[in-house]
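Hey, I was hoping to borrow your eyes for a little while. There's a protein on my desk that I can't quite get my head around. The fold is given in discrete form, as structure tokens running alongside the sequence. I'd be grateful if you could look everything over and explain what you see. Here's the protein in full, and shout if anything looks odd to you:
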Amino acid sequence: VSDIIVERRSLKHTLNRRILRLAIPNLLASISVPLIGIADTAMIGHLHDVAFLGAVATASVVFDVLLWGAGFLRMGTTSIVAQYHGAGDRASCAASLYRGLITAALLAAIILAVRGPISEIGFSLAGGSSDVQQWAHRYFDVRILGVPLVLAIYVCNGFFLGTANAMAPLLVTIVTNIVNVGADYALIFGHWGAPQLGVTGAAWAAVLANGAGIVVAVGLLIWKYRDVLTARLHEPLLKRER
């Protein structure tokens, strides 16, 4: 009996460690998602016009809501890939990743096509003075260009989590935020030989940070999952349901 109790305790301890190994990096990656908007707001706050701060804060809220709504790309990819990964079906894991990226591309195209109405509705609900609205639109018009990159990152992170790799999304998030802070400092204030762009500089910094994030994600896919990505697919990526 004592041996059974010890074995159960050991199994429970091992299971708890595995859960924490997945949960803690995922938690850190999730809570750091809004940091791009927070970093932009913090640095814009050092500029002379308070309208700049209001504009970036308002636009960041619009982006947080917009991107939160696209979170299904990560969660859906995670659940599907996890099933195939557990079954050892590498080809279906790869197909799920590719389908997710196709979905992300289509959704990004739709968002870019209707970005005008999105900004109008979002900023009309948020309110603000005419100066705040003007600068918020300028920030939005630039940062919206990074949405396809963000959606692709969601799919890649979902794939990583589905294969029980929680460190990869954390690494992608860390690199994204570090690049954003550095690019903010350079492009907002004109340091390191960069042009001084102010509010639009913060938006371009976010786009560059998202670009760095997808580069890291793709690099990890090629490095860690080359055998999965090159697995022969059993079925077409886009199937017609009967």
Q: What stands out?
A: The mean pLDDT is 85. The chain is about 80% helix and 0% strand. The CA atoms of residues 119 and 137 lie 7 Å apart. The longest helix spans residues 2-31.
